[in-house]
Automatic annotation (TrEMBL):
Localization, UniProt: Cytoplasm
GO CC term (a single one): cytoplasm
Molecular functions per Gene Ontology: insulin receptor binding
Major location category of this protein: cytoplasm
Species, as recorded: Salarias fasciatus (Jewelled blenny)
Organism lineage: Eukaryota, Metazoa, Chordata, Craniata, Vertebrata
Protein name: Growth factor receptor-bound protein 10-like
Length: 588
């Protein structure tokens, strides 16, 4: 076992060995750590310290673990004694004091393992050893040392340094264990960046030289993905609202003309059955349609008819024939991943902008290894890429989708405040008429609450005007108050707004606001609807000496852009859909 620890130390110092070999060393060393006795560890670790295999930094880390273990022992002992229930004493005359009707924690017999060879408890032994700098190995047999060193080896020798970049180009270095998933890392970054955890954050694998990127699945191990990446590749941390949108609106992602069994069933399959056929391993769904494929080693593209099944991606060598002799296997789903190409037309000369590719997992990341494909429109590309994920991961994707909802349900029971009887008796009232009435419709009650909030806000603004010494204070405040909002992106171009919305998932209601390039006094609302990006100009208008903003030529006016966004989040108005998801860029 000493050899395995030395190998782990060598790997931890040099950071050169990666992959399956280190995993085997880690597994075998962990097993031996659990099976060996404390005395064996004493001899072998003394030898490690003697030969100098463990650096002084690692020795300090080990003794810091002992400090932590001592603190945990103290807390556990306090918790055990404080939470011990009062046990009725059937023989009070045998206890001291005799008048005590219950058994106190002090009257209980001590645990056998709580005292060591010197008659001291584990906590006192550790206190004595650490404070007086005595020989630690005199106290090792009383500790659960194999478990402690197992954790030590896992954290010290099998943790990795990962650098995460945000969309503004800033990076953050994070040390993570080898078994951390993409979901766990996103949760950590959300906590450290003080972001709103709405389960829409994603970790993106980005290859700038190849122009490729994909969102890691929540269950993927970050260290394993990093081991297969090139030196120029990086991880990005950003929003992706479309990650599990196909579970909510499957018909939007899977057009009937591209799903084989929908044509066979004459378009009568409901959305729930559509997803069940994709998730069930017993069914044989199939996506079919024309795609442009780039010839390997050439710059030319050709249009072929393709089929996507659980067994892989196939192309037909004879028109639209499905006969096995006419099908050619292009990619195996188990050994590859699907990427979105972000520089398709410029770098690869693609016929359209809707390009994607299939990249093998074990390749070197060279251009000749990529299977470059191109669709006619965004809906077709989304269908192919979503079906690839469903065929590859199956029910695991659905489990990833349900886990945040289950956690939210569990936390809601603890976070919901207990309401008093008087609060439960409160009802919504309408006092707009001569006589007040109870609002029984919940939708009307919510609308009344929003109107009351807007009225309160207007009153507060009037108070601000009265308290200001400058007559331009109110108008200047309304003209800049939107700068603090995450959905406002300033002076970005039209193409840049398209890129941001495409990166964060083209779902209905995804929006951002920016300054207009054609009219410096106006603003533009960029909105995604049915996977198409549309732009709406927000013009300023003046009435009674006050500046308002309007989206519909003055029919509906707002004092600032925040009010405008809040209104269209509740009402569709002249827009094709409500504003649902703001495009945000967070700096790490």
């Amino acid at each position: 076992m000493l050899n395995h620890i030395l190998l782990g130390l060598h790997w931890g110092e040099k950071k050169k060995k990666k992959g399956r070999a280190c995993s085997q060393i880690h597994t075998q060393a962990t097993v031996e750590l659990h099976t060996c006795s404390a005395c064996t560890f004493k001899a072998e670790l003394v030898e490690l310290f003697a030969v100098g295999a463990v650096s002084s930094k690692h020795q300090c880390d080990f003794f810091s673990i002992v400090h932590v273990f001592r603190r945990l022992q103290e807390e556990e002992q306090q918790l055990r004694t404080s939470s011990l229930p009062a046990i009725p004493n059937p023989f009070p005359e045998l206890c001291s004091p005799a008048s005590s009707p219950v058994l106190s924690p002090g009257s209980l017999p001590p645990e056998e393992s709580s005292s060591g060879k010197y008659g001291l408890s584990i906590v006192n032994q550790l206190n004595l050893a650490v404070s007086c700098k005595l020989d630690m190995w005199e106290f090792v047999p009383a500790l659960n040392l194999p478990r402690m060193l197992s954790v030590y080896v896992n954290r010290l020798f099998f943790s990795q340094i990962v650098k995460i970049f945000s969309e503004d180009g800033m990076g953050k270095v994070v040390e993570i264990p080898a078994d951390m998933t993409a979901r766990d890392l996103c949760q950590l970054l959300v906590y450290k960046s003080h972001c709103v955890d709405d389960n829409s954050w994603a970790l993106v694998e980005h290859h700038p030289l190849l122009g490729l990127e994909r969102c890691l699945e929540d269950h993927e191990l970050v260290v394993q993905v990093q081991a297969s990446m090139n030196s120029d590749s990086r991880f990005l941390f950003r929003k992706n609202y479309a990650k599990y949108e196909f579970f909510r609106n499957p018909l939007t992602f899977f057009p009937e003309h591209m799903v084989a069994w929908c044509q066979e069933a004459n378009h009568t399959i409901p959305p729930s059955q559509l997803l069940q056929n994709f998730l069930a391993t017993s069914s044989c769904p199939e996506i079919q349609g024309h795609l442009y494929m780039k010839d390997v080693g050439r710059k030319s593209w050709k249009k072929v008819y393709m089929f996507l099944r659980r067994s892989g991606l196939y192309c037909s060598t004879k028109g639209t024939s499905k006969e096995p002799r006419h099908l050619q296997l292009l990619a195996d789903l188990e050994d590859s991943n699907i990427f979105m190409v972000i520089t398709g037309k410029k770098q690869h000369g693609a016929p359209t902008e809707y390009e994607f590719c299939i990249k093998p997992n074990k390749g070197r990341g060279e251009m000749k290894e990529l299977r470059m494909l191109c669709a006619e429109d965004e809906q077709s590309r989304t269908c192919w890429m979503t079906a690839f994920r469903l065929f590859k991961y199956g029910i695991v994707l659905y489990q990833n989708y349900k886990i945040p909802q289950q956690r939210k349900t569990l936390l809601s029971h603890f976070s919901t405040p207990v309401r008093s009887v008087s609060e439960n008796s409160l009802v919504a009232m309408d006092f707009s008429g001569r006589i007040g009435r109870v609002i029984e419709n919940p939708v009307e009650a919510q609308s009344a609450a929003m109107e009351e909030g807007l009225a309160w806000r207007k009153r507060s603004q009037r108070m601000t005007i009265l308290g200001s010494h400058s007559p331009l204070h109110h108008s200047s405040l309304n003209s800049v108050i939107h700068i603090t909002q995450l959905w406002f992106h300033g002076r970005i171009t039209r193409e840049e707004s398209h890129r941001i919305i495409q990166q964060q998932g083209q779902v209905d209601g995804l929006f951002l606001l920016r300054v207009s390039q054609s009219n410096p006094k106006a603003f533009v609302l960029t909105l995604c609807h049915h996977q198409k990006i549309k732009h709406f100009q927000i013009l300023p208008c003046e009435e009674d000496g006050q500046i308002f903003f309007s989206l519909d030529d003055g029919a509906t006016k707002f004092t600032d852009l925040i009010q405008l966004v809040e209104f269209y989040q509740l009402n569709r108005g002249v827009l094709p859909c409500k504003l649902k998801h703001p495009c945000t860029v967070v700096a790490l």
